[in-house]
Design brief:
Length: 458
């Protein structure tokens, strides 16, 4: 189908001479570029040409409801004129100045983040994404403590760069091993096997006892930091058990171990608080951010550092940096994005839509035997599927079987974009989604679960 037949404005967009049709875009992308986390021949990418609010449009004119905020990252929704205008304005004024300069946009965002982050978090170090932020947070923790080891959890993803992928606990680490030394992985409060049977509180307390033993065995004086996703993201959308964060912080403090909260996915209102650690009443020593910091309009990450750590680097060199550290365009995007989050009250909106998401999940669970569980905190949701009453998954961990592939195809055909893996799928729409759009999404999920019900073994 040509662009003219799609109803999209001819010549709209990037101003290229003539436009490619859907087939040509896909064919050339596949032939001349590499896709991440996949074998190139197996990908079937959607040729996206436009996006507005919670909707994406493909080159053939088909519309998709963005049920995953792309990479769980477009918090304010697509095509927000305020962020676009801020990027344009900054590009005209000063598109780039190297990291050693001082710019007004850097001063403004630094000040804004200091005000936004609670307690002793008043200093930011800018990067270009989540993985880089985690690398630099650990770099800072090692320099300040003089210790090398880092504790990280198995149910986690922390980025794809060398250290970050090896701090990652999930299967994406395997092909990247062996990694740098000094990373100790621990199990999570939430086991993969739910049949362990304890309450959330008991699991949290048991986990802390286990962690205390790990710290003793490793030597607490050798551990610089523990890195956690405050709310585990792709590995389950799992908020910490009640009371867990405060007890964890106290345990780590006892040993002089710094707590790094990875809020790359959970931050900027996704969970109904600006930062997810606020649910647990704690302030970590370091916090890492990306995704919702700019809603992905431009790449930017940041590390928030406590006053004590920031003070250390007033007198000592921070041995880290990037050509694009504090890139003015990215900072302008972040500043405008945060203004939108605040003025449109999107954090409050995520909190106020949580009950609707949970109610829809409860309605579907009562109706569909193949739905094992639905979880949501704010607009951060996941649905787990089961193939039988014993709760067994359709595909085991780190695999994707035919049922999940069929489900994924159905979602795409029905115009719902989400991440489907193992035996679960995400419900993570932009925070600007309306109640009606949220219900539209769950109506498609409802129909999709009929498909998995048909595979349910009684
Ligand atoms: C919790 C978490 N940390 C870190 C990252 C890595 O971020 P990036 O892809 O920007 O490097 C991700 C990306 O999905 C993430 O979800």
């Amino acid at each position: 189908m040509s662009r003219r037949e799609t109803g999209l404005p001819a010549g709209a967009g990037a101003g290229y001479p003539g436009r490619m049709d859907a087939k040509e875009i896909v064919e050339k992308c596949k032939r001349t570029t590499m896709y991440s986390w996949s074998a190139g021949d197996s990908v079937d990418p959607i040729p996206v040409v436009a996006a507005k609010g919670v909707w994406l449009t493909a080159a053939d004119g088909k519309r998709y409801l963005d049920w995953n905020s792309q990479a769980m990252s477009v918090h304010i929704g697509h095509g927000h004129p305020r962020v676009i205008a801020a990027i344009e304005r900054q590009a005209r004024e000063l598109a780039y100045a190297y990291a050693g300069t001082a710019t007004e946009v850097r001063a403004r965002l630094g000040e804004k983040l200091a005000a936004l982050m609670p307690g002793h978090l008043n200093t930011s170090f800018f990067t270009l994404g989540g993985g880089e932020s985690n690398e630099n947070a650990v770099r800072a923790a090692r320099a300040v403590t003089g210790r090398q080891k880092v504790l990280a959890r198995y149910r986690s993803y922390h980025g794809a760069t060398a250290l970050a992928i090896n701090m990652t606990g999930d299967y994406r680490r395997w092909a990247n091993e062996p990694g740098p030394p000094g990373i100790v992985h621990v199990l999570d409060p939430q086991p993969y096997d739910y049949s362990f049977g304890a309450t959330d509180e008991e699991r949290g307390q048991n986990h802390l006892r286990y962690l205390e033993e790990v710290i003793a065995a490793e030597g607490g004086h050798t551990i610089a930091a523990m890195l956690i996703e405050t709310v585990t993201g792709t590995n389950g959308v799992l908020p910490p058990p009640p009371g867990y964060l405060a007890s964890l912080k106290a345990l780590l403090d006892k040993h002089g171990i710094l707590l790094i909260c990875d809020e790359v996915m959970a931050g900027f209102g996704r969970t109904g608080k600006m930062f997810a650690f606020e649910h647990g009443g704690i302030v970590p020593d370091l916090v890492t951010m990306a995704k919702g910091l700019t809603s992905s309009y431009l790449p930017l990450g940041a590390v928030g550092l406590s006053d004590r750590i920031a003070q250390h680097f007033k007198k000592n060199v921070f041995y880290g940096g990037h050509t694009y550290n504090s890139h003015p365009l990215c900072l302008a995007a972040a500043l405008a994005n945060i203004e939108v989050i605040e003025e449109e009250r999107l954090v409050e909106r995520a909190a106020s839509l949580e009950p609707l998401m949970k109610a829809e999940m409860a309605r579907l669970k009562a109706k569909h035997p193949s739905m094992k569980e639905g979880r949501a905190i704010g607009l951060f949701g996941m649905i787990d599927l089961q193939k039988n009453a014993r709760g067994e998954p359709f595909s085991p961990y780190a695999s994707s079987g035919p049922v999940m592939a069929k489900l994924s195809r159905f979602f795409r055909d029905q115009g719902l974009l989400t991440f489907v893996k193992h035996s679960n799928f995400t419900c993570v729409p932009p925070l600007c989604i309306s109640e009606d759009e949220l219900r539209q999404g769950f109506a498609i999920v409802d129909r999709a679960l009929e498909l998995t019900d048909a595979e349910y073994q009684t």
